[in-house]
């Protein structure tokens, strides 16, 4: 006679346990939906664009992370950034960061944000993003003495390739010192765009 109650008890335990779990999950889902509804009303997420809860959590996390970014990172001057710090910018890895530093330091300073687009592989989107993370103070710290620099020194500048450097020195040796950047127009192979690009970096 004792066996029958034990069998009934063993049969009932899983049913009662399942009922408790389902009740708990229902309460948790209601609480979760309440939180989502609050976020939607505050403008953080749009329920219509969310196919499932997992995407809701991911999108909310990204927005929260973006809003906290300025609290986490102090905005440095771009001129002070090294190749490690630059990698906080989305879209910039080790290779691109190294190119940026080499370009910036080789120029001797940047007078315009747009110059960053001259870095090999740089896109407008990533270039704009850099200055969301870094302050930009235009300024040229060092210039090239076009009348005294040799071919190797001229060719170290990002805007002057080795062939152009040889032409500059050959013309200078034949015709004398350059008086201004406009004298470069006398070298007919040089374009106006290129001359205007290197103009701020020359001394005479």
Record keyword descriptors for this entry.
single chain, 204 residues, mainly alpha, 7 helices
If you had to describe this structure to a student in words, what would you say it looks like?
The chain is mainly alpha-helical. The chain contains seven helices and four strands, in the order ααβααββαααβ. It has helices at 3-41, 53-72, 94-107, 124-133, 151-155, 162-175, 192-198; strands at residues 76-77, 134-135, 144-145, 202-203. The strands form two sheets. A two-stranded parallel ribbon has the order 1-2. A two-stranded parallel sheet has the order 3-4. The longest helix is centred in the first third of the chain and has 39 residues, at 3-41. 12% of the residues are buried. Residues 31-36 and 38-58 have low confidence and may be disordered.
Question: How is this fold's topology laid out?
Answer:
Blueprint: H1 3-41, H2 53-72, E1 76-77, H3 94-107, H4 124-133, E2 134-135, E3 144-145, H5 151-155, H6 162-175, H7 192-198, E4 202-203
Parallel strand pairs: 1-2, 3-4
Put simply, the count of helices is 7
Q: Report low-confidence residues grouped into runs of 5 or more.
A: 31-36, 38-58
Please report the distance between the alpha carbons of the first and last residues: 113 Å
Task: Write the element-wise H/E pattern from the N-terminal end onward.
Answer: HHEHHEEHHHE
Look at the helices and sheets and give the structural class: mainly alpha
């Amino acid at each position: 006679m004792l066996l029958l109650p034990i069998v009934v008890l063993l049969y009932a335990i899983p049913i009662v346990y399942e009922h408790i779990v389902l009740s708990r999950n229902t309460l948790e889902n209601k609480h979760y939906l309440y939180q989502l509804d609050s976020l939607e009303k505050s403008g953080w997420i749009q329920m219509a664009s969310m196919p499932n809860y997992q995407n809701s959590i991911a999108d909310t996390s990204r927005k929260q992370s973006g809003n906290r970014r300025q609290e986490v990172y102090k905005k440095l001057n771009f001129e002070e950034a090294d190749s490690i710090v630059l990698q906080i910018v989305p879209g910039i890895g080790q290779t691109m960061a190294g190119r940026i530093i080499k370009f910036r330091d080789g120029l001797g300073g940047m007078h315009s944000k747009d110059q960053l687009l001259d870095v090999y592989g740089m896109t407008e989107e990533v270039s704009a993003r850099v200055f969301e993370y870094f302050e930009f103070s235009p300024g040229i710290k060092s210039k090239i003495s076009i009348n005294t620099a040799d071919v190797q020194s001229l060719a170290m500048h990002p805007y002057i390739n080795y062939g152009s450097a040889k032409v500059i020195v050959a013309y200078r040796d034949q015709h004398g010192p350059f008086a201004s950047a406009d004298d470069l127009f006398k070298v007919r192979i040089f374009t106006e765009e290129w001359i205007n690009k290197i103009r701020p970096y020359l001394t005479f």
